[in-house]
Design goal:
The protein is an alpha+beta fold and about 475 residues long. About 35% of the residues lie in helices and about 25% in strands. It folds into 3 domains: about 80 residues, ACT domain (Alpha-Beta Plaits, 2-Layer Sandwich), CATH 3.30.70; about 100 residues, no CATH class; about 180 residues, Aminopeptidase (3-Layer(aba) Sandwich).
Length: about 475
Amino acid sequence: MTADMSNVTRAKHGRPVHHWRRDLVELAALFTAVAVADAVANMVGHGPDGPALLVASALALAATAGFHTWWARHHGHAPPAGDTGARPAAETRSAGPSAQPDGAADGVTATGALWRMRTTVKDEPGSLAALCTALAERRVDILSLQTHPLADGTVDEFLLRAPGALAAAEISRVVARAGGVSTWIERADAHDLVDAPTRVLGLAARTALDAAELPLALRQLLGRCTIRSLPGSPVGGGRGPEPVPGEGVLEDTVMRLPAPEGGVLTVERPYLPFTPTEFARARALVELDNRLGPRIPGGGDVLTLPEGADITVRRVGTGDLAAAKAMHERCSPRTLGLRYHGPVGDADRYLNHLLSPRFGRTLAAQTTSGRIVGLGHLLWDGDETEVALLIEDDWQRRGIGGELLDRLVAMAVEAGCESVYAVTQASNTGMVAAMRGLGLPLDYQIEEGTLVITARLDAGPAAARTPHETGHRHLADPAHRD
């Protein structure tokens, strides 16, 4: 966004700009040259030594031309030292995104590092110009700028490309000296090069296709934040959250928006207050989700178990509540106890929450007759992600649990989650084996018989899996997997 202002008057509408003073000088030089040529012609034509003078002039011109040719070959056309003429042409960049070199995903490119910055300046003429000038002096290029007017100032949000050696602290000091306050800065990546309207439209399209995408879309829209969905009727009874007005409530670093069925969606970002623009965009996404209602993508994968039986793995939602409840009734108390860490009271209330796409994604293993024999849940828990499995007793030890878990973890990777955790009992060897079968780094924490296993979603077999591939596949012998 920085520019060489000395080049502004060099051309207009693609044509050179001519100045009248230059034209006068050139005209005067022309008349002078004609007068000199006339005097020389009279001297040569009428003087006694005219022919000799003409030959001497020709020899002098030839010698001068030869010397100029020799000088150009040995010294080129570079200006002499101390030349203060016009600057060389500025580097030209092609419009639109270009191929990113190695490291672009980390915000570092061949031309510098990408940063997202937000600062507050006074709402008065010249304040933004002073800030941009200060950044330009440090060779910081402003790739995009959004302004958010507030009552006591203007919040300016920048996407910057800075020299690689320029640290975030130094950029913040430059901004502070230029009048910026409450400055926040973090590394950006190539995805931030997409303009805001395009990014919002893409998130809206994802949300329209799958209700489980709403929390992920809000995180990508607002950055690192904690999202909690509180149902109007909590599981296990009790009083629900206080309702919020239809337009929602914005309270500095917290926004509360109405969720379906009388619930409340709370978004919190303690490190940075929300702007009215961010609040309006988040409210529009939530309203779109509410209007479309519960929805999940269709399709499924057919898998052949080692003994030859076929099952289908597909996404399920609250419309499958009756089939999921019937599976619960076929499960033994021990299996239900391992899954829910104790006796199950009102299974309907638990299942309605677990199957809702507003709280996560659920996969089901279904027989050819349509009976559900296994459920796997990927649940959004604030800024963390939980995985859970329940396999009907007669279908355990056939690899179904491991297959569901693989797909859930692949979905978590696709959603940009850093880790997933499972809460179970230390005696649940099937779940422990399934987590170990992921091939990912695991962390174990045990407290009073409750085991929490956390898998870091680094590069690994599960992370490389495509979560939505379809087709008919044969399962290998599960060995030690559930």
